[in-house]
Amino acid sequence: MDWVKILHLLCVMGWMTSIFAVPRALIYWKREWARLGEFGPLGDLTYRLYRFSAGLGVIALLTGLWLGWAWDFAPWVWLKLALVTLLAGHYVLTGRMVARARGGTFRESDLFLRIFNEISVLGVVAVLWVVVVKPF
After folding, report:
1. Which of 18, 59, 85, 118 is spaced 20 to 30 Å from 8 by Cα?
2. Are the CB atoms for 86 and 120 separated by under 8 Å?
3. pLDDT tens across 20-74, in order?
4. pTM above 0.85, yes or no
């Protein structure tokens, strides 16, 4: 069970790296695209980070479900799953932005991307609160 927790935490950390970094990287990718007029190294790095973290997110989800099952899906686990589902939705929206950016389309402003990035921080704080406090 401890190894499942360790694997879960490791994969969550990797997935969170992408959730926090990719929206911010899109800002700099957009600037690079404007300067170069083509797909450059920053775009490649951002795309690879997003794609790599998808696998970590899947492993984090599977190990999290395993742990939830081991804890008999206590009420706080359901709340955590709901919050993680919202974070996964945030991740999917980020993926759509990355896909558009690969084609040279940057619809979102720098301000939007900065706010969008901070929303994920609030979501992670909520998840951590639920896991530590176990309110139910």
Report:
1. 118
2. no
3. 999 999 999 999 998 988 888 999 999 999 999 999 999 999 999 999 999 999 9
4. yes
